[in-house]
Amino acid sequence: METDKLKAIAEHSGTSISTVRRVLGHCAGIAPETREAVIGAQCTLNHPTACTDRRIYFILPDNPKFFWHKALDVLNGHPFDPPIKLSFYPSLQQHSLLKTYLEPLLTEENAVLILAADPDEGEQQLIAQIAKRSLVIQLCQYTPIEGTVYVGADAYADGYALGQLAAQHLGSPRTAVLKGEHSYTQEESCRGFIDGLGSPATVLPEPDEGPLYASLVARTLAPLGDLDLVFCPGGRTAELCRGLYKLRSQATIRCIGYEASPQLRKMPEKSLVFALLQQDIASQTRTVLSLAKDYLITGVRPASSTYYIPSRIGGCANTANNFSRRRNDG
User: What is the number of other CB atoms lying within 10 angstroms of the CB of residue 27?
Assistant: First the structure.
């Protein structure tokens, strides 16, 4: 981006040019309010809009290492009117901030809330109230809340496809499933995976996200002894690999929801990965913005409450062959 544009964004957001470069480069270690200010300034400068009483509110994780930056790329390249109000929450402090973002929307009329989060029970009640007066679209992460619209992958179908793939290559593997608590999307992913696998699996709670995640994974799985397969729909593939590496496990990994991050491609543990399910977050975001724009223009809610965007299974066919040889040799 040209220096003049960077300078304009910096002045508009009250930050420095170096900070703008870091935000637009999806670097980590940036405060959510700073990221919000920079992205908001870029959107405003790229797409000047007329005054309007209706607004679009977009709340998503402050997680530049994974695929959310693709949603921001679509957002920044999408001509919209009215302007979008962006809010970011740190993944580890979701529930301390999400409520403060939702409460002001209770008084909004005919606005659009786009939400990428796993709300707790109290937050779900707030969202249901907002949905009575405005359009609420859940992006990628889904919780059954009356009056809302979901745009994203079909979690059950995705999990089922991965389970069938595992059964095709591995027969009836000794399987552990790490399932996050309080996440409907992960519940559906795990249910689909086990149904597709067609053989028993031990279901355990996924450790909390944080710097000790890999060690906690190893500690959680250690009592199960030798495993052939671990499925975890939480998306933390690199950390999961490290946890299995600490076990010196023969397991391969199924991970639903996120493509391999750049850090995973550089890790020796990447050989543990058998398949990854890749969501098309860019298409999901474009669909969400199209629905939002139509609603603001016509005042008519979307015809459907669910818009599934197909996912793609990617992975390592060679890993499947290597895994089969390891089992036979063992």
Answer: 13
